[in-house]
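Dear colleague,

Thank you for sharing your sequence with our group. We've completed the structure prediction you requested, and as agreed, I am returning the results in plain text so they can be pasted directly into your records. Please verify that the sequence below matches your submission; if there's any discrepancy, let me know and we will rerun it promptly.
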Amino acid sequence: MTVPAINEEIVRNRRKRADALRQIIRTCRDLGRKLEALNGALRHLEGLEAPEIRDAGTDLSQLSRELSDLERRVEIRHERFQSGLITVSIAGLEKAGKTTFLRSLTGIDALPAFDERCTAVCCELHYAEDRSDFDIAFYTGAEFAERVLKPVFETIAGGLPEPLRAACVPPASSAEFVNMPLPPADALPGGTTAFKLLSDLRTLQAHFRECRVNLDHPPLLRRPLAELREWVSYGQARVDAADENRRARHLARVAAAKICRIYTRFRGGSPHLRWIDTPGVDDPNRRARELTLAAIAEETDLLVVASRPGATPSPNENFHNFWDSVSRQPDEIDLMNRMLFVLNCDRRVDPDGENIQIHRKYLTDAGVPRHLFVGPLEAVRPEDAAILMEKVNDHLGAHLSDQDDQAVLAFRNRLRNIQARIRLFHDTLADARPSDAGLHDLETEAFHKWFHWYGGGRDTGFWTELVAALDRATREIPEDARIRESETTLNAIFAQEAEALESRIPSPEALEDYVVQHRGENPVPGGMRTLSIFFSDLVNRLASEVQEFGPIMQDKLLRVLSDAGLAPLMAGEDTAEKLASLLAHLDGTESPVIEVLRETLELPRNLKYVIRYELRPAVDFCDPTLWNPGEDAWNRLREMVAANGGPADRLAMFEICKYPPVSDSRERDHENLRKIAGNAILAVQAALSNERYLPRRIADDFMRDCRVRLCFSPESEQEWRTLLFRNRGRLLAGTIGQIRARSERIRAFHQALNALTDGLP
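Please find the predicted structure tokens below.
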């Protein structure tokens, strides 16, 4: 028995039409890019132009969606035309003999057929001279939860009463499914689809380990055909109780399979012919039904619908739903030209062919032309399968070229329709499009008005605000709460440390222990080193607090500049970042303005170094190594007190002229250390009491210096004008920024609109 192969003339005719589809794809892509560019330009014009412009966005989005959908559908068809691939799918109810027909037709013994519920997943049969194996892909865990478990849970929940229905929620992941409680078996009426699904779900959960090992698993490639039944078959329809556990594990493993592709030589095969064996459309698993409909909608050139032998060949609710679903699948040609109806006859259950007559009448009443009937045929007979292939060849030879021509023509007509609507859309926009003439001429005038303008009998603008803000900031310094708080903090730190000074001076007993431990060594230098550490910590605390005063002054100057209008140039979270951002925007030329900003940026560190330098003699006075004649710590301390206006006559003197003082009495050593500490604290107090180190005095001097250097110079106004003109786009976002943005948007809109007409009929 010879099974006819696909007619090569059919393949050649299909390939000839690939160029026409390729041209349609290029046109769609070109128009799609132009529409996307125009859509972007149109969105930028929203709220600025005529009502015709504003209302065009909806029409443009609709055109873009239709064009994108057309391109996607043409690409799918072009790939099949280019390769010459012809896809024939076989569909029908469960146990309709679909796989049996394919096994009889191809001679592939590995296909599970006859009395098995065979197809758990879609199986593609590809002709390959050099292979005899199959590939199988698996679901990911997320896909399994969404596409397998979720539909089953929804079906079960639909048959449950409250409150069980509310509790029957699909698992968020496959891992969650393992331990989740399922509804009780008696909650559903027996014999219903939901009841059967609940039973299957309970079995799957019990053996989910078999399924989970394959989820997220890479595809199995080139598996021998002998293993095919392990992955695509539901197993024997009739099993005894002893095999039930094995069958349950097998079903759990098969549930993880997503799609199977078989590659081998077979009777009537051709590299240009692909058969797709689909799950039964009345399978309780909604996943199987959806896979069937998806294959029909996207891949099939010819759909062979097989009837089921027996008492219910097809006229039931499930098949009606399937017929309606297939009939509604969108395509460019009449669905009837893509279908053959095989009347499958099984002499074991219908020896007289009565059910065939019932099914034939049902199809005739449904409007199926008689020339689309094939059979009756017996799926188990290779001779009948060869007859089916002859009918497939005849049908494709008679209709496929016309179908392909109709598809190309339908695509062209659809494209022309879209192009005509695009032309009308273009003409409407062209009549209402705005102009940007003269917009750039407004920039300079707008900047000068912003910078300094005299109108209405008074000065306005940045320059006027800068001078006034600097004057206000200087006058507000004596009442500034943050400056007063800084002074209070400095005094509190000094008072706290001065109070703790007595406890830091070694007692006579401690000095005596020091002499004993160090074998008569003079204890005063050691005590002085202890005091030196104390005063070093005190000076560093005071310097850190003075450093914190720096950001206050930075913030005060930044507020002045912000009030004047420079806030758009100050990006950042804290004061230092904002000041650095302002300097970065204005930098580029040397000017007094840039110098002031740089000095302000370094102000905290400079203040810290200044106060540490001024208080250094007090720390050095407690360092015994600096009491030599070359260092002269005593005289430098006296000069520090006198320079700060302190009472130099209150500095304690020493009876012994040798420094550090040496005596045989620990009480006298203790008294000498008290004098050293008292002199050092007196020097620090004198410096802190000096008016020039008061935070409010520093702030006043800083702001007055800024006012002179930023505003009083004859060149100051022009320097500011030159620096800020380069940043006019940021400074005037509401004026120059809008002018510039409007001009750019209109120009981009013109370019996109003009480009749209190229290539339109």
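Summary note from our side: The chain has 31 helices and eleven strands.

Kind regards,
the structure core
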